[in-house]
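Dear U.,

Please find below the material for section 3 of the report. The protein was modelled together with pyridoxal-5'-phosphate; I have listed the sequence and SMILES used, followed by the predicted complex structure.
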Amino acid sequence: MTPIPAMHRVLADARVAPYDLLLGRNVVKRAAEEVFGRARISGDRSYDDILDELAQHLCELRRRSLLTVINGTGIILHTNLGRAPMARNALLELVGVAHGYSNLEYDLETGERGSRYVRSSTVISEVTGAQDALVVNNCAAALLLVLDTFAKGREVIVARTQLVEIGGGFRLPDVLERSGATLVEVGTTNRVNIEDYERALSPRTALLLRTHPSNYRIEGFTHDAAPRDLAELGCRAGVPVVEDLGSGALVDLAEYGVAHERTVQEALGDGIGLVTFSGDKLLGGPQAGIIAGSARLVAPLLNNPLLRALRVGKTTLAALGATLELYRSGSVAERLPVYRMLAASIDDLRVRASVYAESLPGAAIVESVAYLGGGALAQERVASVAVAIAEEHPNRLAARLRAATPPIVARIEQGRILLDLRTIFPEYDAAVISGCRSSLT
Ligand SMILES: *Cc1c(COP(=O)(O)O)cnc(C)c1O
């Protein structure tokens, strides 16, 4: 019969030791007692064998938590995989602020209570040219706060070309209804012009809302009212104009070889009163929703009691501030992962792919198409390079890759497993190759 070994010996074993920190000593101890207890009942098994089982069990426990995964899909802003990876300086700020105390709502000059929003609004204004700004939990929350503040019990005019569902159950008409606003639709599915908006104006009109059609496109006989005309109409009628930009580009994406995406600066330059956008899409920061625009329109948002329920925490503010610093210092291309991935040359990707191909039996280097993803520009294609693994049962191999440590999420295309190198960080290459090797055998 296998004796129960000394717990300190079990905990010190290299297969078990890492879980001490990841799961906590008590969880590891309980698991060890359980596995060794079962082994005693079932009879003769070697200590080594039981320890393997324990390690396997701990690994399964660990996999129930939020984990780092390798993104081999080629989709740069993958909502299911956590959207934008953050920059190193953002992580450092986040850790520093999370580790201890901070001046989150404390004014160091006066020694009195301060505002948690003041620092982020300053840097957002500097980067975007907005007069003022506010950060909330995500872009959906930003839109909700704007609608709740300005449009409750009143009318919001939206073009039928823009009445979208973004995904995850976020349908614009439903969000409007929830916020107590009445939707007034103008134009047709494919066309809207400024006169349509003008005719729909009434004393009950609270907002003119423009939204990014995000993840779908209308092509052919189409027309949208120019944002500048919309801003002018709002100005004449004394009605605020709001634009939900979603992905919130702050730099010209054409410089990265993909289609130009309307930037926050352009929308504000067109005279839009308030814009809303996400922190973790093209901005490349943490999950957040940013509302930027005229000071006159931001002020009432700060007084809405709903803000308390939508507010962001210190780690978000720290990471967002540090991310925006990269825009201010003009170092986005080198230091922000989303843009570093976009900027990687095909040659560089090929060099990395050849290392994969040499180490993995049956692997080939193939041309691939990566996608920007993340709502707006979801279908925007980026030339890329992938490692293809031919396999009789690609679904099974994909499942084995997902079971690797760290899990590898691949793409299946024409019966092959593809690992797109554009979304795999070069520093993970060795781990991905080793994960693939063990999954292949
Ligand atoms: C992504 C998106 C949203 C939702 O943003 P979250 O930050 O996920 O809440 C809203 N509007 C548009 C146009 C979007 O693209």
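For the text of the report, you could mention the following: The chain has 19 helices and 16 strands.

Regards,
Y.
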